[in-house]
Amino acid sequence: MDRIFDCHVHTFPDTVAAKAIPLLAERSGGLVPAYDGTLAGLTATMREAGIAGALNCPIATKSTQVESVNTWAAAHNRWPVLSLGSMHPAYPDMERELSRIRDLGLPGIKLHPEYQEFTLDDPRMTPVWRVCRDLGLVVLIHAGADIAFSPPYHTDPERIRAWIEAWPGLTVIAAHFGSWKMWDRVATELIGRPIYLDLSFLFGLCSDTAIKDMIRRHGVERVLFGTDAPWRDPEKEVTRLPALGLTPDELEAICWKNAARLLGFG
Ligand SMILES: [Zn+2]
């Protein structure tokens, strides 16, 4: 494989990383981070894994963090680590901040319904879906279960399906292949629908044959390679790719071309 782009990584300002990474590791029940959460740590890890570029997915866990998260993201949104912005259901002037995100050159936003406590049909989120659709901002959303939370979860394949049906024209990337640990229902509700699915935190939890089959049935043009680093080790994730048994063209679409088209690089 020539070029690999990782569409799902996490990085923080250095001072935040030192506090956030141990806290998040503990909350996840002891996941061992592949790097220290800093941009320097991430880029060194990418080099070792042979990953040419990556997309940072920040989460504003409080509405008061939205602007600083977006300002930091914009200041560091340059190759090889591009960045999404973030939004929060309790943020007061969503339309203005989403316009600023667009003007800063960020390709979209990352949202996490568990950390941010909202459902997809929450009326507070209506302006987010409308403005992101109108401005062409991509929405990358954590989907399904989460290791750091207990059920009931805020999203599942049925609710994601209803959401994308309610918002045609909104570009959605559902992380963790549509809904983490709900892949039997992803197969019936989301496969083949107009939604991007990323491969982050999936390998080893689903069989390689099942992953390959779902990728092909969904359409390789709507699947993105992603790792969720540092919570998965990019080097190990990359070595899993050949085992899927996809063709070189299919892998190139998943690992590079789709992200390049969506995010406007390469
Ligand atoms: Zn993640």
Protein described:
This protein has 266 residues and is α/β, with parallel strands linked by helices. The protein has one domain: Metal-dependent hydrolases (TIM Barrel, Alpha-Beta Barrel), CATH 3.20.20. It is 40% helix and 11% strand. It has 10 helices and 9 strands. Strands 4-5-6-7-8-9 form a 6-stranded parallel β-sheet. A 3-stranded parallel β-sheet has the order 1-2-3. β8, α8 and β9 form a beta-alpha-beta unit. α2 packs parallel to α9. The protein starts with a strand and ends with a helix. The mean pLDDT is 97. Zinc ion binds next to loops.
CATH topology: TIM Barrel
The chain-level structural class is alpha/beta
The CATH architecture category equals Alpha-Beta Barrel
Provide a count of the helices.
10
Q: Which blocks of ≥5 consecutive residues have pLDDT under 50?
A: none
The strands making up the biggest β-sheet line up spatially as 4-5-6-7-8-9
Can you write the helix and strand succession as a string?
EHHEHEEHEHEHEHEHEHH
CATH superfamily: Metal-dependent hydrolases
